[in-house]
Every structure is written in structure tokens, then in C-alpha cells.
Amino acid sequence: MAGALLRERVGWASAQAWLTLAAVAWTRGDAALARTHLEAAIAGFDASEVALSAAAARRRLGEVLGGDEGRALVRTAGEAMARLGVTRPDRMAALFAPGFGGR
User: Fold this and answer.
1) Please, which residues have CB within 8 angstroms of residue 68's CB and are 6 or more apart in sequence?
2) Other CB atoms closer than 10 Å to residue 69's CB: what's the count?
3) How far apart are CA 96 and CA 55, in angstroms?
């Protein structure tokens, strides 16, 4: 799936592919690769102006990073989602960016 999305050469599709690859990397225990892919996804969603997906990916990056930096990203993502009318950012992230549950 991710390969097909990357071949589309459309910003939001490539971003979705990077998000999918990040979830695979996270599931396999490769936090560094998950981070790299999440950063690419966020850049793509931001460039394509897909705010909700960008916020979900940003939340996931915060969860991957942890610590103060991670908490700040989770908070920023939650605020962005709230501006879009989302009342449960955790559930929206689960819908838009699945695959980041416990390893």
C-alpha cells in the first residue's frame, strides 16, 4: 500500500505512505525510523494543507519521542485538533494514524 501511494506523486498520498511506514517501523521496534517517517509525513501533510492528518501524525511523533519534547508535540497536536472541532484527539489519532499502540 505505501509503495503505491508513493508512486502517486501527490503530496497528501506520499504523506499517508510515510505515516503508514512509520507505523510499520514503530511496530517492528524501530523508533528512529518511525521518527524519520513521521517527520516526512508531517511535512507532506503540512505542505498539502491536510491539517487533521498533520495533527494526528504530530501527535504520534510526540508519543514516539516521549519526554518534554514529546509532550509538547502531543499538546500542540491536541490544540490543532480542538481548533478543527475534535473533542477526543486520542481517538482521532487512532483513526487517522493507527498502528502506534503498545509494542
Assistant:
1) none
2) 11
3) 9
Return phi, psi of residue 35, to 5°: -60, -50
Average pLDDT over residues 27-33: 96
| pLDDT the model gives residue 8 | 61
Length of the chain counted residue by residue: 103
d(CA 59, CA 74) in angstroms, rounded, equals 4
**Burial label, 48 (beta-carbon count in 10 A; 0-12, 13-18, 19+):** middle
The secondary structure of the chain in percent helix, strand, coil, rounded to multiples of 5, reads 80, 0, 20
Write out pLDDT tens, residues 42-58: 999 999 999 999 999 99
Cell matching residue 96: 487517522
Between CA 20 and CA 88 the distance in angstroms is 22
